[in-house]
Specification:
This protein is α/β, with parallel strands linked by helices. It is 23% helix and 24% strand. Strand 3 and strand 4 form a beta hairpin. The structure holds flavin-adenine dinucleotide (FAD).
């Protein structure tokens, strides 16, 4: 492997990396190397069940079960003295190969806020063509806002197919004043409606399935799996390649340009291991800082959530058929909020925790705009040691207040008469947990969980922003030939699940980079 050289070397074959590799290798004059730590699956028939779709009883939210396909990080929420598991995909397709397949686009306000913060190329208008390019929308393909020929199918449950808990959820939400919104991927969508998903015909359409499988034979694309990148090699302020461990050997793969797409946890981790990050912290660990970039690992954002779980007399679970256990969602604004659309609640036809007996449903309440910010720090210089992740949830009082309000909305929906005849009672929280605001807050602080949307740890921003790590083209400030393209560079966490936005980001930057090849 040592001695191998690529024009472009991408680290991580996840939501962003797979898209980049597929698009950049369309230029047959560019050699592209794609390195992935996890295993590869080249054909649909090879996909393990966990990667292909959903399994009954899978702890979708609470943690990981298939260690060979997942990084199993642990994070702190230091303000709450709470630790929690944080799984990420470690397999071709990355987290898009293990995720929940909710395929929601960033809202117009999310993207226009990015542009207003000094990222003028990332306005809603600037991003829309790339959301269109990546999808084939099964329901709104004749709409100017949607794509009809992209690699990822996006579908919604038709009204006639809504299962009884979904129908009850819809009736409860509309009765409580939430408008019916048939297309939650409209730029300003809010209200109650079907969840767009990229789970179609019994298959999770990950970035690996949609983008890599069809282009495997390309001779200018080399996909190297089960290979761990341990650092970026730098010389005279320029990235020259990466150091990898494969078959217990350390080797160097060189490249004209290195793109880190290892995700919001591993990309800042790799930068710091390479001497790029907050200089004081690196020095404390005995690493000679090559570049002082204080923003690396800062500004960690997510969408924390809490659940209400309800009992039913009959089994209502949709596992394993017809597939995803959720059909409907409501997007709303917490009553005391000063930001719009900061609440997301869904109807999950599963109890998700501790095994699923089928007799129950869950209504999670997610906070989609956090004011509290977390951090990611290097634990030590050993690349195999996970970084220190602190989500710092609810450090800001208004996050707790808004999450409590959204939690009360879940209770209001679940108790609504629309569920009479279906629901037999609240499984948890208990009456004691609901006895007062302080009891409820204690319950929230004890059970809050990651929404799996870690982001913004190498955020994009103008050079005047001292905590910005990359420019609008993903270029790392102060280093030639090094970019980061993944969830870590989002300027701010959009008010939606991240997969579609990260794939859009990679589509857009591929276009930019293809235009600049050979410059
Ligand atoms: C359990 C779960 C459920 C989710 N559900 C949804 C959902 O329903 N809808 C949604 O929109 N979003 C969801 N998300 C979030 C979404 O999937 C991620 O935000 C998105 O996939 C991130 O893309 P990425 O390219 O930044 O990173 P990833 O897709 O995580 O890709 C990073 C890749 O880099 C590889 N890598 C890391 N370090 C190294 C290294 N040192 N050497 C080599 N390779 C390395 C990893 O193995 C991985 O393949 C979920 C995430 C998880 C974990």
């Amino acid at each position: 492997m040592s001695g191998t050289h690529f024009d472009t070397l991408i680290v991580g074959a996840g939501s962003a990396g797979a898209v980049l590799a597929a698009r950049l290798s369309e230029d047959r004059g560019r050699s592209v190397g794609l390195i992935e730590a996890g295993p590869d699956y080249t054909r649909l028939e090879e996909l393990p069940t966990r990667v292909r779709g959903f399994e009954r009883g899978l702890r979708l939210y609470a943690g990981a079960r298939v260690a060979s396909h997942e990084w199993q990080y642990t994070a702190r929420a230091s303000a709450l003295h709470l630790d929690m598991p944080v799984p990420r995909g470690r397999v071709i397709g990355g987290s898009s190969s293990i995720n929940g397949t909710v395929f929601l686009r960033a809202l117009r306000q999310d993207l226009d806020n990015w542009a207003a913060a000094g990222n003028s190329e990332w306005s809603f208008e600037g991003c829309l063509p790339y959301f269109r390019k990546l999808e084939t929308d099964c329901d709104f393909a004749d709409n100017d806002l949607h794509g009809a020929s992209g690699p990822i199918p996006v579908c919604r449950a038709a009204d006639d197919d809504w299962l009884p808990p979904s129908q009850a959820f819809f009736n409860a939400c509309t009765d409580l004043g939430h408008a019916h919104c048939p297309d939650m991927n409209l730029p300003d969508a809010r209200g109650v409606g079907p969840i767009p998903t990229n789970y179609h015909d019994g298959l999770r359409h990950s970035s690996a399935v949609g983008y890599l499988m069809p282009i495997r034979p390309r001779s200018n694309l080399d996909i190297m799996c089960e290979m761990l990148v341990t650092r970026v090699c730098l010389s005279d302020g320029r990235a020259t390649g990466v150091e990898v461990v494969a078959d217990d050997r350390i080797e160097v793969i060189s490249a004209d340009e290195v793109i880190l797409s290892a995700g919001a946890i591993a990309s800042p981790h790799l930068l710091m291991l390479s001497g790029i990050g907050p200089a004081d912290e690196l020095k404390t660990l005995g690493i000679t800082p090559l570049l002082d970039l204080p923003g690396v690992g800062q500004h960690l954002l997510d969408h924390p959530f809490v659940m209400t779980v309800w009992n039913t007399s009959e089994a209502v679970s949709t596992f394993p058929a017809p597939g995803v256990p959720w059909q409907l969602q409501v997007r709303t604004t917490a009553p005391s909020s000063d930001v719009r659309d900061d609440g997301w609640l869904t109807m999950i036809m599963s109890t998700t925790r501790d095994g699923d007996d089928g007799r129950g449903f869950t209504i999670p309440s997610s906070l989609m705009y956090e004011k509290s910010q977390g951090t990611l720090r290097l634990r030590c210089t050993d690349p195999s040691a996970p970084p220190l992740i602190d989500f710092n949830y609810l450090a800001e009082e208004s996050d707790l207040v808004r999450l409590r309000e959204l939690f009360h909305l879940a209770l209001e929906i679940g108790r609504h008469r629309a569920f009479d005849g279906l629901r037999t009672g609240l499984r948890y929280p208990s009456a004691d947990n609901l006895a007062s605001d302080s009891a409820t807050d204690e319950w929230i602080a004890r059970t809050i969980s990651t929404g799996h949307h870690a982001s913004c740890t190498c955020r994009m921003g103008p050079s005047s922003d001292r905590l910005a790590v990359v420019d609008q083209r993903g270029g790392v400030y102060g280093v030639e030939g090094l970019r980061v393209v993944d969830a870590s560079i989002l300027p701010d966490c959009p008010s939606v699940n991240l997969n579609a936005t990260v794939m859009m980001l990679a589509e857009k930057l591929s276009d930019t980079l293809r235009g600049s090849h050979g410059e």
